[in-house]
Amino acid sequence: MLNKTPTDVLSPPADRTPFVELESVQVTYGKSFVALQPVDIAFSDDQITVLLGPSGAGKSTLLRALNYLVRPSSGTVTIRDIGPLKNSKAIRAHRRRTGMVFQQHQLIARLTALQNVLLSRVGNYSFLRSLLPLPQSEREWALECLDRVGLFDKALERCDALSGGQQQRVGIARAIAQRPHIVLADEPVASLDPASSIRVLTLLRDVCRQDGIPAIISLHQLEYARQFADRIVGLSHGSIVYDGPPAGLTEDVLTKIYGPSR
Fold first, then answer.
1. Three-class SS of residue 231?
2. DSSP assignment, residue 189?
3. Element (H or E) spanning 75, and its range?
4. Cβ neighbours of residue 191 under 8 Å, at least 6 residues apart?
């Protein structure tokens, strides 16, 4: 791991407990493939963190380990106000408070934008109650979330009639409809054109800053990382090789992340 001086690293404030903390978290696939080397890292409030690195560097694995979509092979993930994710009850509680934005949107194409956003609220009700229409207050909240992403007028349109950028904005509305304490976004602009990418990342940043919640976003694009991140965590071959501000991405650091032939 890269040796870091105090000015290189963005640490949580001394008087605040990190929102999420990973201690010696490692992910191994099969018997021998180590996708994520043991990492120790913490993420605090009010910070947009970008996970940066080439394909196979461990970005998505680290991101998905944060809410056990990928279960760590060893180590501990600890969430403020919940504690270590050691049992299904703690994992469910954390997932209910985690907004996820995916690369391929993960929307149900035949449903409307409003119906897709409302799906994020179903987990707050019992199974039997979820079989009935959700309360009017939930519909109003879902419409408010669509309005925040500029899609109020598309609420009753099927998602397969929307553009890729609009579908991703529905995904963001769905995430914030959970009233999350943290947002995780896995390559959210990988399939979008530059104009749509900038709009989606601007929206994600603004929503998280307005709501005072951290966002952790995995990206391939260096220019977007520099533009939108408060903090950058650079990965290479499953290890963290940089942890600091965008201004610290020197040529030497980029070589550590991407290798000499980037």
1. strand
2. T
3. strand 74-79
4. 103, 104, 164
Pair of tokens at residue 166: 């609009």
Phi/psi of residue 24, nearest 5 degrees: 55, 40
Spatial separation of the C-alpha atoms in residues 129 and 187, rounded to whole Å: 34
* Segment 9-54, tens digit of pLDDT: 344 444 468 899 999 999 999 888 999 999 999 998 879 999 999 9
Instruction: Look up residue 257 and give its two tokens.
Output: 């992340």
pLDDT, tens digit, 9 for 90 and up, residues 220-251: 899 999 999 999 999 999 999 999 999 999 99
Q: Which candidate, 19, 27, 48, places its Cα nearest to that of 217? A: 48
Distance CA 234, CA 244 (A): 9
**Do 79 and 96 form a contact (C-beta atoms < 8 A)?**
no
Nearest to 2 by CA among 261, 249, 260: 249
**How are beta strands 20-29 and 33-43 bridged, if at all?**
antiparallel
CA distance 39 to 26: 7
CB 69 within 8 A of CB 186: no
Among 159, 146, 169, which residue's Cα sits nearest to residue 112? 159
Provide the pLDDT confidence category of residue 195 given band limits of 50, 70 and 90.
very high
Q: How far is CA 57 from CA 61, 62, 188, 233, 234, in A?
A: 9, 10, 17, 11, 9
pLDDT of residue 4: 37
- Give pTM, 2 decimals: 0.86
Phi, psi angles (nearest 5°) of residue 162: -95, 155
